[in-house]
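The material for today's practical consists of a large collection of protein records. There is nothing in a record beyond a sequence line and a structure line. As an example, a complete record with its sequence and its C-alpha coordinates follows:
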Amino acid sequence: MARRQRAARVAVDGVKVEFVYADGAKDDVQLSGDWNDWKAIQMFHEGGGMWSVVTPVPPGPHEFKFIVDGEWKHSNRHPTIGIDETSLNNVRFVLPEPDLSAERDGVADPRARPRGQRASATAGGAPAPAAAPPAAAADPKKKGLFK
Protein backbone atom coordinates (compact mmCIF):
# COMPACT_ATOMS: atom_id res chain seq x y z
CA MET A 1 0.00 0.00 0.00
CA ALA A 2 2.77 2.45 0.95
CA ARG A 3 4.60 1.71 -2.29
CA ARG A 4 1.47 2.46 -4.33
CA GLN A 5 0.96 5.77 -2.50
CA ARG A 6 4.61 6.69 -3.05
CA ALA A 7 4.37 5.93 -6.77
CA ALA A 8 1.29 8.13 -7.04
CA ARG A 9 3.04 10.97 -5.19
CA VAL A 10 6.09 10.79 -7.48
CA ALA A 11 3.86 10.78 -10.57
CA VAL A 12 2.06 13.94 -9.38
CA ASP A 13 4.91 15.79 -7.68
CA GLY A 14 7.92 14.45 -9.58
CA VAL A 15 11.54 14.14 -8.56
CA LYS A 16 13.20 17.26 -7.18
CA VAL A 17 15.66 18.40 -9.87
CA GLU A 18 18.04 21.36 -9.82
CA PHE A 19 18.38 23.47 -12.95
CA VAL A 20 21.20 25.99 -13.33
CA TYR A 21 21.64 28.80 -15.85
CA ALA A 22 25.05 30.48 -16.01
CA ASP A 23 25.22 31.82 -19.57
CA GLY A 24 24.76 35.49 -18.70
CA ALA A 25 21.68 37.48 -17.69
CA LYS A 26 21.07 41.07 -16.62
CA ASP A 27 17.97 40.99 -14.43
CA ASP A 28 15.86 37.84 -14.63
CA VAL A 29 15.92 34.14 -15.54
CA GLN A 30 12.98 31.75 -15.59
CA LEU A 31 12.82 28.03 -16.42
CA SER A 32 10.15 26.56 -18.67
CA GLY A 33 9.64 22.93 -19.67
CA ASP A 34 7.36 20.35 -21.20
CA TRP A 35 6.56 18.75 -17.80
CA ASN A 36 4.44 21.77 -16.77
CA ASP A 37 3.09 22.85 -20.19
CA TRP A 38 5.91 25.40 -20.60
CA LYS A 39 4.79 27.58 -17.66
CA ALA A 40 7.57 29.85 -16.36
CA ILE A 41 9.25 28.97 -13.06
CA GLN A 42 11.20 31.80 -11.40
CA MET A 43 14.90 31.07 -10.89
CA PHE A 44 16.98 32.57 -8.07
CA HIS A 45 20.14 34.62 -8.57
CA GLU A 46 22.99 32.87 -6.78
CA GLY A 47 25.59 35.54 -7.58
CA GLY A 48 28.41 35.53 -10.09
CA GLY A 49 25.98 35.29 -13.02
CA MET A 50 24.52 31.97 -11.84
CA TRP A 51 20.77 31.34 -11.49
CA SER A 52 19.21 28.16 -10.10
CA VAL A 53 15.95 26.54 -9.04
CA VAL A 54 14.90 23.16 -7.67
CA THR A 55 11.56 21.97 -8.99
CA PRO A 56 9.67 18.65 -9.18
CA VAL A 57 9.87 16.94 -12.57
CA PRO A 58 8.30 13.57 -13.49
CA PRO A 59 10.76 10.79 -14.39
CA GLY A 60 11.60 10.49 -18.09
CA PRO A 61 13.04 12.65 -20.88
CA HIS A 62 12.11 16.33 -20.80
CA GLU A 63 12.77 19.36 -22.95
CA PHE A 64 13.24 22.76 -21.35
CA LYS A 65 14.35 26.28 -22.11
CA PHE A 66 15.22 29.44 -20.19
CA ILE A 67 13.55 32.83 -20.41
CA VAL A 68 16.45 35.24 -19.97
CA ASP A 69 15.56 38.90 -19.58
CA GLY A 70 12.35 38.23 -21.52
CA GLU A 71 13.94 36.18 -24.37
CA TRP A 72 13.63 32.41 -24.87
CA LYS A 73 17.12 30.85 -24.83
CA HIS A 74 18.71 27.45 -24.57
CA SER A 75 21.88 26.95 -22.56
CA ASN A 76 25.14 25.81 -24.12
CA ARG A 77 25.95 24.08 -20.81
CA HIS A 78 23.16 21.49 -21.16
CA PRO A 79 22.53 18.92 -23.93
CA THR A 80 20.26 20.15 -26.71
CA ILE A 81 17.76 18.66 -29.13
CA GLY A 82 16.49 20.28 -32.33
CA ILE A 83 17.52 20.92 -35.92
CA ASP A 84 18.56 24.58 -35.92
CA GLU A 85 19.16 27.55 -33.62
CA THR A 86 15.48 28.51 -33.55
CA SER A 87 14.22 25.03 -32.62
CA LEU A 88 16.91 24.06 -30.08
CA ASN A 89 15.71 23.09 -26.62
CA ASN A 90 17.75 21.75 -23.75
CA VAL A 91 17.00 18.16 -22.79
CA ARG A 92 17.40 16.16 -19.58
CA PHE A 93 16.49 12.61 -18.61
CA VAL A 94 15.16 12.48 -15.05
CA LEU A 95 15.61 9.19 -13.22
CA PRO A 96 12.97 8.01 -10.75
CA GLU A 97 13.83 8.24 -7.07
CA PRO A 98 15.18 4.94 -5.69
CA ASP A 99 12.64 2.86 -3.77
CA LEU A 100 14.02 2.76 -0.24
CA SER A 101 10.94 1.09 1.25
CA ALA A 102 12.76 -2.30 1.26
CA GLU A 103 15.35 -0.84 3.66
CA ARG A 104 12.60 0.34 5.98
CA ASP A 105 11.11 -3.18 5.83
CA GLY A 106 14.36 -4.72 7.09
CA VAL A 107 15.98 -5.53 3.75
CA ALA A 108 19.22 -3.59 3.38
CA ASP A 109 19.85 -1.65 0.19
CA PRO A 110 23.18 -2.90 -1.28
CA ARG A 111 24.04 0.69 -2.26
CA ALA A 112 24.07 1.64 1.44
CA ARG A 113 27.19 -0.45 2.23
CA PRO A 114 30.34 1.49 3.14
CA ARG A 115 32.58 2.13 0.15
CA GLY A 116 34.88 -0.80 -0.62
CA GLN A 117 32.87 -3.35 1.39
CA ARG A 118 31.63 -6.30 -0.65
CA ALA A 119 28.41 -8.18 -0.26
CA SER A 120 28.61 -11.30 1.88
CA ALA A 121 28.98 -14.51 -0.11
CA THR A 122 28.57 -16.91 2.82
CA ALA A 123 25.62 -17.85 4.98
CA GLY A 124 25.18 -16.06 8.26
CA GLY A 125 26.58 -12.75 7.05
CA ALA A 126 30.28 -13.66 7.47
CA PRO A 127 32.52 -12.10 4.84
CA ALA A 128 33.68 -14.34 2.01
CA PRO A 129 37.31 -15.55 2.29
CA ALA A 130 39.92 -13.65 0.29
CA ALA A 131 40.99 -15.18 -3.01
CA ALA A 132 44.34 -16.98 -3.08
CA PRO A 133 47.24 -15.01 -4.62
CA PRO A 134 48.48 -15.98 -8.10
CA ALA A 135 50.90 -18.93 -8.12
CA ALA A 136 53.89 -16.76 -9.15
CA ALA A 137 53.34 -14.40 -6.25
CA ALA A 138 53.02 -17.33 -3.80
CA ASP A 139 56.42 -18.84 -4.74
CA PRO A 140 59.22 -16.82 -3.04
CA LYS A 141 61.83 -18.11 -5.56
CA LYS A 142 60.05 -16.41 -8.47
CA LYS A 143 60.59 -12.66 -8.56
CA GLY A 144 57.96 -11.71 -11.14
CA LEU A 145 55.18 -13.12 -13.23
CA PHE A 146 57.30 -13.39 -16.41
CA LYS A 147 60.54 -14.83 -14.98
Notes: Strands lie at 15-21, 29-33, 41-42, 44-47, 50-57, 60-68, 71-73, 80-81, 89-94.
